[in-house]
């Protein structure tokens, strides 16, 4: 499954919210005028794109409308998609150009840092990289144990101290271990902290200084994990964290569970921090590298032209083939049943037997004289011989659909019994 299919499914709630509001807007206007742009600006703000970003998008759209001479509001979606893609800029990925590359993961409590670390470690190990994880969240209860479970699952090594120890010392030891063991990637977990807690922010500065000092010549990535469900509050978090740490990228988690995915645009535009990873599900491979082009396209795609509009929990391509084969088998069984019914009712003939119960040879059978009889002029139905009728009835009773014959026969007998009783009474 490609990124477009996953991101389109992951931002389904955001897409439905954006397209629902835009469709309502387009249906309310027959021409593109200033009133239309004011309503569009309000609509974009309601989609969590942000006030400043929405104004800038509308200004860029005004220029394109004049350049191309657009008059139909329904033509706006294509231009909006290209403007947003241009606003997001080029994709920036995590480069593994040094050994080791240090990835410092920060964010508030509950944003999904530990899960992100586990998925990221699994991704790099699957690519053949050696990964070490530093358990520098020494404050939260069971944080080290939770990280150990993820490392065991992914196959990564872990460097840890006892609970309550200095987080900066854990990071220091982890950097030394990564150099000595020849690790390709070192991922450092940190304690969750609110952006308004000064003492914890000062501790984060200390960890950042150790990374810069001990890992000289190595790339240091500081990833800020944000919860997409918090909307514009995530933008405020990013502003505060960027003041105390050199945030190089954003990891936006829980994107599939919210209609506020428009914050990706405002984060990038207002702060200049690129979104490098997005979480679009709970599976181990649902942490994906961000693509601005596919996001902009998927944001305005409709359900009618999106082939990936499916339930996420079903990703087995063989299932559709099984369904097709089952339907084909059902048709075959039905055809065979119809053929057997015809054969039982029409083609079955009684095999004559002798006194010993053995079939009689064809030569021993005496040909019965054939007499031409003219049918009664008043009668339109030709009666069948009694023996042939008995054989057909017996075949119907013993055939696949015998229960239907019994019900019909029972109904006929009931009617004859009622007619006979009425005649006796008369």
Kindly summarize this structure in a few lines:
Helix content is 53%, strand content 10%. The protein has 15 helices and 8 strands.
What does this entry look like structurally?
This protein has 426 residues and is α/β, with parallel strands linked by helices. It is 53% helix and 10% strand. It contains 15 helices and eight strands. It has an eight-stranded mixed sheet, with helices on both faces. Helix 11 links the parallel strand 6 and strand 7. Helix 10 runs parallel beside helix 11. The longest helix is centred in the last third of the chain and has 31 residues. About 15% of the residues have low confidence.
What topology emerges from the helices and strands here?
Layout lengths: L2 H8 L1 H17 L5 H13 L4 H18 L7 H13 L12 E7 L5 H14 L4 E6 L6 H12 L2 E3 L7 H15 L3 E6 L7 H17 L5 E8 L4 H13 L4 E5 L9 H9 L3 E5 L7 E3 L2 H8 L17 H31 L38 H13 L3 H24 L1
Parallel strand pairs: 1-4, 1-5, 2-3, 2-4, 5-6, 6-7
Antiparallel strand pairs: 7-8
Helix pairs in contact: 1-12, 2-3, 3-4, 4-5, 5-12, 6-7, 8-9, 10-11, 13-14, 14-15
- Sequence stretches where pLDDT stays below 50 over 5 or more residues: 304-331, 345-349, 362-382, 403-410
What is the number of beta strands? 8
Task: Give the termini separation.
Answer: 82 Å
* Residues in helix, %: 40-55%
SS-based structural class? alpha/beta
User: Shape from CA axes?
Assistant: elongated
Q: Report the major sheet.
A: 8 strands, mixed
Strands of the largest sheet, in order across it?
A: 3-2-4-1-5-6-7-8
- Whole-number average pLDDT? 76
How would you spell out the order of helices and strands?
HHHHHEHEHEHEHEHEHEEHHHH
Number of helices: 15
Please state the CA-atom Rg, rounded to the nearest Å. Answer: 38 Å
How much strand?
A: 5-15%
């Amino acid at each position: 499954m490609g990124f477009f299919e996953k991101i389109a499914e992951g931002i389904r709630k955001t897409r439905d919210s954006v397209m629902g509001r835009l469709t309502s807007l387009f249906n309310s206007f027959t021409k593109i005028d200033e009133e239309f742009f004011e309503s569009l600006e309000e609509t974009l703000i309601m989609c969590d794109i942000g006030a400043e970003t929405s104004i800038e998008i509308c200004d860029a759209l005004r220029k394109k409308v004049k350049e191309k001479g657009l008059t139909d509001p329904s033509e706006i979606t294509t231009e909006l998609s290209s403007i947003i893609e241009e606003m997001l800029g080029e994709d920036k990925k995590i480069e593994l150009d040094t050994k080791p590359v240090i990835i410092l993961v920060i964010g508030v409590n509950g944003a999904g840092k530990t899960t992100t670390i586990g998925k990221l470690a699994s991704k790099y190990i699957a690519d053949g990289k050696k990964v070490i994880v530093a358990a520098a969240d020494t404050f939260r209860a069971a944080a080290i144990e939770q990280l150990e479970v993820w490392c065991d699952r992914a196959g990564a090594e872990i460097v840890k101290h006892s609970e309550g120890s200095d987080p900066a010392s854990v990071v220091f030891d982890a950097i030394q271990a990564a150099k000595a063991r020849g690790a390709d990637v070192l991922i450092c977990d940190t304690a969750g902290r609110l952006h308004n807690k000064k003492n914890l922010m000062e501790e984060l500065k200390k960890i950042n200084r150790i990374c810069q000092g001990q890992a000289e010549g190595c790339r240091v990535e500081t990833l800020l994990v944000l919860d997409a469900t918090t909307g514009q509050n995530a933008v405020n978090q990013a502003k505060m964290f960027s003041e105390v740490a050199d945030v190089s990228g954003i990891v936006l988690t829980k994107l599939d569970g919210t209609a506020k995915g428009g914050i990706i645009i405002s984060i990038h535009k207002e702060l200049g921090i690129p979104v490098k990873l997005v979480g679009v599900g709970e599976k181990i491979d649902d942490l994906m590298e961000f693509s601005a082009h596919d996001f902009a396209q998927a944001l305005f795609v409709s359900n009618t032209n999106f082939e990936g509009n499916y339930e996420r929990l079903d990703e087995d391509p063989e299932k559709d083939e099984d369904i097709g084969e089952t339907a084909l088998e059902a048709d075959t069984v039905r055809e065979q049943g119809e053929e057997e019914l015809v054969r039982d009712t029409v083609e079955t003939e009684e095999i004559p037997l002798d006194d010993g119960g053995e079939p009689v040879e064809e030569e021993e059978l005496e040909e019965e004289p054939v007499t031409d009889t003219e049918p009664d002029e008043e009668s339109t139905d030709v009666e069948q011989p009694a023996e042939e009728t008995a054989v057909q009835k017996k075949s119907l009773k013993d055939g696949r659909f015998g229960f239907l014959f019994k019900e019909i026969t029972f109904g006929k007998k009931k009617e004859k019994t009622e007619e006979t009783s009425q005649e006796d009474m008369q």
